[in-house]
Amino acid sequence: MSNAAVILKKGEGRTIKAGGMWVFDNEIDRISGSFENGDTVEVHDFDGYFMGYGFINTKSKITVRMMSRRKENPVTEELIERRVRAAWDYRKWTVDTACCRLVFGEADFLPGMVIDKFSDVLVVESLALGIDRWKPVILDKLVKVLAEDGIEIRGIYERSDAKVRENEGMERWKGFIGAPFETKVEIMENGVKYIVDVEDGQKTGFFLDQKNNRAAIQKLCGGKRVLDCFTHTGSFALNAGMAGAASVLGIDASMTGIRQAEENARLNHLEDRVKFMCADVFDLLPELEEKGEKFDVVILDPPAFTKSRGSVKNAVKGYREINMRGLKLVEEGGFLATCSCSHFMEPELFAKTIREAAKSAHRRLRQVEFRTQAPDHPILWAADESYYLKFYIFQVCGEL
Fold this sequence. Notes:
Layout: E1 5-8, H1 14-17, E2 22-24, E3 28-32, E4 40-44, E5 50-56, E6 62-68, H2 77-94, E7 99-104, E8 113-118, E9 121-126, H3 129-133, H4 135-148, E10 155-160, E11 173-177, E12 184-189, E13 192-197, H5 211-221, E14 225-229, H6 235-242, E15 247-252, H7 255-267, E16 274-278, H8 281-290, E17 295-300, H9 312-328, E18 330-340, H10 347-361, E19 364-371, E20 390-397
Parallel strand pairs: 1-4, 9-10, 14-15, 14-17, 15-16, 17-18
Antiparallel strand pairs: 1-3, 2-6, 4-5, 5-6, 7-8, 8-9, 10-11, 12-13, 18-20, 19-20
């Protein structure tokens, strides 16, 4: 730990006082003492009041990521172990831990660190310089805590290859931590088997945050004709197939994803009813509409259309377009499942956009339910950035 202290400007620090985890560069008056980026520093209010300890990085607009609020609670190995134990205990209470997110950054008070568990393999994503220095300790403590519950980890793979690392002045990197192992891992979720490619799959290899939402669509799909857009490796499509759908068509622009989805369909003996097509969803949906195609259930699970506030306006156009096109393909009385995984697409704006899409499509919607990310991706109310996934199920109502 350095001897440096970050002193905030007068009138700043309100989010920190409310439990927030980030100090931005424009909130800082000055920094006293010597430090290296990545060090732990003290954070003080303008009048000298101690506000906590955090990791500093002057290369990032998020200059300090908070770790502790109490003077007597500095950042040590003991603190890291308490955080790791708390994160694991929370998962045991709330989710199926066979495959789950074990550490979710700020929401688990380990800012910038993400760790997923796929059966007996861990995948780690380190996105901030300060937490990266503690990565070996975090992983050691996590392996130790899991072993106490009889869970032996056979391998760890790092997927710190996200572009956001460059904002921290860090290189993008991926590779084994420890001994190499087979990186295609078989998992089971909601009774569905998948092959997860932790080396070359998107992000950490599989999107665990939709676990409960995938289960929620099963009750709608028995005997139905289902269209799954942006299927990735087939997760919603396979849940529909396992629920007894008469037919399922999954669409994705990535041929790599489609090949993996087809392998997953064979793994679950669903290849006769669950088919996949490599195509651009924005191009294909108008073609299906022109042909007069209709589906009982349409699922829209697009990638984030915006990753910054500056591009929200264009994202709204994308979400409006895709929902309008999807709604036109739903049979009267059928269902639309639609979501946004962008933090910057705020819930009220997403709801407004769907309403506008329904109006353009001349469809009347009845909300079945609103959901968000699975509990292993907890939402810390003091840290807005931890809330990102919005998921609706609607029935498309006609006149009786």
